[in-house]
Every structure is written in C-alpha cells, then in structure tokens.
Design brief:
Blueprint lengths: L2 H16 L5 H6 L3 H8 L5 H15 L2 H9 L3 H10 L5 H15 L5 H13 L13 E9 L4 H12 L4 E7 L4 E7 L4 H9 L5 E7 L5 E5 L38 H18 L3
Antiparallel strand pairs: 1-3, 1-4, 2-3, 4-5
Helix pairs in contact: 1-4, 1-11, 3-4, 4-7, 6-7
Length: 276
C-alpha cells in the first residue's frame, strides 16, 4: 500500500467521522488528528487536500472548536497557502476561503458563541448551511430514485462533474441531497446532471413564507448547459480502497463510541508518517 493511498484512506475516514456533530469535539481535542489535518492541507495530492478541507469545515461547524482550531500551529497559514496556490482547483480555494473566514472571526461575540456551543455540537449534521461566504449558496434537492448505494454513487458522479459544486451530503432516509455551490451556478444545472442518469429525477426543496417546505419540479424541457469540472481528480471507487486491519477498522460512522478507537489509530499513523 503506497504512502499516498494511506494518507487518502486516513483523511477520508477522519472526514467521515467529522461529519457527525458528536465526534467533532473529540477530534479537535485529540493531540494527533488536528495537526495531522493541517499537514494534509499541504499534501501534493489534490484529493487529499480537498478531503482534509471538508473535515476541517465539519469541525468548524462546532463553535466551541473554532478558537482552538484558529490557534493551532499552521492552520491559518496552510489555509492561506491553499487559497493562494495557483494549482489549487477553484472549488478547493473557495472552500479554504470559507473556512478561513469562519476561523478568522473566532473570538468575536464570545458570549453568544458560548451560549450556542452546546446546541451547535449536538444539532443534526447539516452540511455547510451557513452564509459565511457570500460567493456560495446551498441547494436542497429531493431525488426520486435515490434508493440505495448504487444510485447514490451515480448521483455523486453526476455532481462531481459539475464545475461550481463545492460539497454535498446525502440524507438517504428522505431521499435528499444538500449541495453547496457557487452563487453563480444555477440550481437547474444540478437537476439536469442528476436527471441525465435516467434512473433518478431531482426536484428542488424550497422554504415557504410560513417556514414550511415545498418541492418544486425543475422546468421540463429546460436544457441547462452543465460546465464539467476537470480540475478535481477522479475519486477512487470505494471497492478499490484497501481493507484496514481488523483492529483498525471503523465499523460505522455516526457514533463517538465507534470513533474514539479510530482516532487513536489515526494519531498513530500521523505520528509514524510525519515529523512534528
């Protein structure tokens, strides 16, 4: 197993753990994981960098983490380097900029943040719904046909091809996908891409004036030109990912009990792989 593939495996597992709000405090308090994520931000593989940014963005969702993350050695400098690096894909720069702005504001309005910290860390995972970056917006899609992992993979492939998609997460139980996109990208482009799979149909979920939700179909016959994203490298298929040793495997994501053992494993990997 190559060192680069090892790094990708570790950062992807850490990203998945960070997606659960109940894990975020433990990850930031761990002595190895946060410094390791910072090192991953300077990794030569763009896929590793992007996955590390997603993990950091998840961790920054917890207000109680932000001050420590901002003060962690190399965090702000590494984010700046990603933003300024000429070879960084546009979506990677935008995500790094969004994280930088969130952490830069840490420490302000401390009383309000302290009051909201507990609720912020407990609330249900909701992917990048803040409006910290005016150049990005969130679109919620209801996808008919999003029934299993195969359909989910098809949907992922369709979304990853769209230039302007920053990140996305699935809510399989309700057949929804929450997509973070650049402000200049039309939501119809997402519908066109998903509908092109021929086995799924996307509709947009919008808020009503009374605070409810309404599902709005995309206009039939409206062809939206989808600009394909060629900057971000192809994601490795999950079935090609190497198997972890049994004592290092993560059985499932979503529980701090399941994640604690893996945090130690990740820290050990980072300690073996880097000079601090």
């Amino acid at each position: 197993m190559s060192a680069e593939l090892d790094a990708l495996t570790v950062v992807n597992q850490l990203r998945d753990l960070a997606a659960d709000p109940l894990n975020r405090r433990a990850i930031v308090e761990d002595q190895g994981c946060l410094p390791g994520l910072i090192l991953f931000l300077d990794h030569p593989n763009p896929q590793v960098v992007y996955s590390a940014l997603l993990a950091v963005r998840y961790l920054a969702e917890c207000r109680a983490n932000r001050e420590k993350m901002k003060g962690e050695l190399g965090m702000m400098l590494s984010l700046q380097n990603v933003m300024q690096k000429g070879t960084s894909p546009g979506e990677t720069k935008l995500l790094a900029s969004e994280i930088y702005e969130i952490l830069q504001s840490a420490g302000k309005e401390e009383a309000e943040q302290a009051e909201a910290a507990a609720a912020s860390c407990r609330r249900k995972a909701h992917f990048f719904l803040g409006s910290n970056n005016k150049r990005a917006k969130t679109v919620v899609l209801h996808i008919d046909g999003l029934d299993d992992s195969t359909r989910r993979s098809l949907c992922e492939e369709a979304l990853l091809k769209i230039r302007g998609v920053i990140s996305f997460t699935f809510q399989m139980a309700v057949k929804r996908c929450v997509v973070r996109i650049r402000s200049d990208l039309k939501a119809e482009a997402l519908g066109t891409a998903i509908n092109s799979t021929k086995v799924m149909m996307a509709q947009q979920v919008v808020k009503t004036e009374d605070g409810g939700e309404r599902i709005v179909p995309f206009q039939e016959g409206l062809a939206v030109l989808v600009e394909e994203n060629t900057d971000i490298p192809d994601y490795l298929p999950e079935d090609e990912s190497p198997s972890l040793e049994q004592d290092k495997a993560v059985t499932r994501v979503g529980s701090i009990t399941d994640g604690v053992g893996w945090l130690g494993t990740a820290a050990n990997f980072l300690t073996r792989s880097f000079y601090w």
